[in-house]
Structures are given as C-alpha cells and as structure tokens.
C-alpha cells in the first residue's frame, strides 16, 4: 500500500468516509481518498518519495493536518489520527 492510516474519534471509534487529501510542497493535490467503514485508509497509488501535507476531514469533525514522509519504497504509514467533534 502506498498510503495507510486509521481515522478515529477521541473515544477510539472509527470515522467512516473521512477524506484524506495529500498535497506536495507546492500545494498541488496529489491524492484524495476516503476511509472505509472501519475508518481505515488503504490506497495503492504510488507516491514519489519526499514530504507531503496530509489533510483529514470528516463531516461534523474539525479538520486536521499532518506531514507525511514517503520513503524510497513509495509508502507512507500515517498511523492513527484522531479527529475532534466540532461544536
């Protein structure tokens, strides 16, 4: 997998259909994908090694951003990201 991540609430619940947008250092969108029913991202789009900005959004939650470093293998494992309810 080129990009893997888990999207969760503060209580550990999955956030299905969360959207992950990946941009390069110039701000150009490279990838946009959606979490499955388990709040998991598994996207096989190959990525060029280097730094990227990852923006995670979901309806009813505050967006979050992180930096991802894609390795020479073209993979980036983002780990678990926690979104906070808006309001």
Total individual domains: 1
Shape: globular
The first-level CATH class is given as: Mainly Beta
Q: Kindly report how far apart the N and C termini lie.
A: 35 Å
Strand order of the largest sheet: 3-2-5-6
Structural class: mainly beta
Biggest sheet statistics: 4 strands, antiparallel
The overall pLDDT, averaged over residues, is: 94
Estimate what percentage of residues fall within beta strands: over 45%
Summarize the amount of helix as a percent range. under 10%
Could you tell me the CATH topology label. Answer: Immunoglobulin-like
Low-confidence stretches: none
Jot down its keywords.
mainly beta, 3-stranded mixed beta sheet, 0% helix
Summarize the structure.
The protein is mainly beta.
Describe the structure.
The protein is mainly β and 87 residues long. The protein has a single domain, classed as Immunoglobulin-like (Sandwich), CATH 2.60.40.10. Helix content is 0%, strand content 52%. It has no helices and seven strands. The protein has a four-stranded antiparallel sheet with strand order 3-2-5-6, with no helix packed on it. A three-stranded mixed sheet has the order 4-1-7, with no helix packed on it. It is globular, with a radius of gyration of 12 Å. The model has no long low-confidence stretch (mean pLDDT 94).
